[in-house]
Amino acid sequence: MDIFASRAQTREARLQVELAKLEYALPRLRKAWSHLDRQRGGGVTQRGGGESQLELDRRYLGEQISKLKVELAQVRVMRGTQRKRRSRVPVPAAAVVGYTNAGKSSLINRLANASLLAEDKLFATLDPTTRKVLLPNKMDLLLTDTVGFVRKLPHRFVEAFKATLEEAMVSDFLVHVVDSSSPDALEHIKTTKRVLDELGADGKAVVTVMNKADLPADDSLRCALRSEYPGAVWVSAKTGEGIKELLEKMENMIAHTVKFMRLLIPHSEYRAVAELHDNGAVGRQRITDEGVEILANLPIRLVDSYIKWKI
């Protein structure tokens, strides 16, 4: 929790850290006041100083936890609004996930020519940050950095930081970054998949990226990774090795997750237009006598519902 607190930068991350701390402290209050447990008065029903203080502290922490949950809910509503605004722009999105210190931020910096914080330490990134990447076909892709996962992460952290990881659940696909030089790489992959399962993002399409290919690693580990993940792209965020192949892989991934369509939706079906704004990436909209003409990148799941209005 101290590590998380030192990395929190935005209001959302600080709220999440504070909530996790309070939820951790609440069941441990009795031990904090055990030295006063025997200070009872003369009456049988009279409470000791420790017991009274314990009730006060429990009430206070309970109120603070409720307050923080309300504030976090408001932050999530704001994030949802921002996401809807972003979805109206015809740009597909991917979330970059992986074990902590796998090199996610460094990879985004290389792909987007950005300057995200990228340090050799646990949980350097707590706040989701989005950068635009230009693909070989000149199409833009939004890449969102996320908090690194870790083995045996207490469930309260998965819950407290769920807002930070929501980008993984709503993105078009995932970019799973693995530190291929780590002797625990296979275990790190399992941990990341387990957390994604908890978040409900296990059904997402995934591009697996074996990062740090420039660093020395055990030959047997490299063979195991290549054998179990033959479709993975081997890259080095530091040297640029494999970056061109990764960009092409992401370009192909977009072709399988979204479809560009030109639609003419009748005025009587304006509910479909509203749904398109909520779920599709609307690029341009024009009102005509026949209906609403829209250019959009639709998620594959919506194509069948709108194919009848394709022009």
What's the topology here?
Elements: H1 2-7, H2 11-25, H3 29-32, H4 49-87, E1 93-98, H5 104-112, E2 129-134, E3 140-145, H6 155-160, H7 162-170, E4 173-179, H8 185-199, E5 206-211, H9 219-228, E6 233-234, H10 243-257, E7 258-265, H11 270-279, E8 281-287, E9 292-299, H12 300-306
Parallel strand pairs: 1-3, 1-4, 4-5, 5-6
Antiparallel strand pairs: 2-3, 7-9, 8-9
Q: Would you mind describing this structure in some detail?
A:
A six-stranded mixed β-sheet has the order 2-3-1-4-5-6, with helices on both faces. A three-stranded antiparallel β-sheet has the order 7-9-8. The model is unreliable at 40-44 and 116-125 (pLDDT under 50). Helices cover 47% and strands 18% of the residues. The chain has helices at residues 2-7, 11-25, 29-32, 49-87, 104-112, 155-160, 162-170, 185-199, 219-228, 243-257, 270-279, 300-306, and strands spanning 93-98, 129-134, 140-145, 173-179, 206-211, 233-234, 258-265, 281-287, 292-299. The chain is flat. With 311 residues, the protein is an alpha/beta fold. A hairpin with a 5-residue loop joins strand 2 (129-134) and strand 3 (140-145).
* Backbone CA Rg: 24 Å
Any idea what the shape is? flat
Strand content: 15-25%
Taking the alpha carbons of the first and last residues, their distance comes to 55 Å
Low-confidence segments, given as residue ranges, are 40-44, 116-125
Annotation, overall tally of beta strands: 9
Helix content: 40-55%
What's the average pLDDT?
A: 79
The ordered H/E elements are: HHHHEHEEHHEHEHEHEHEEH
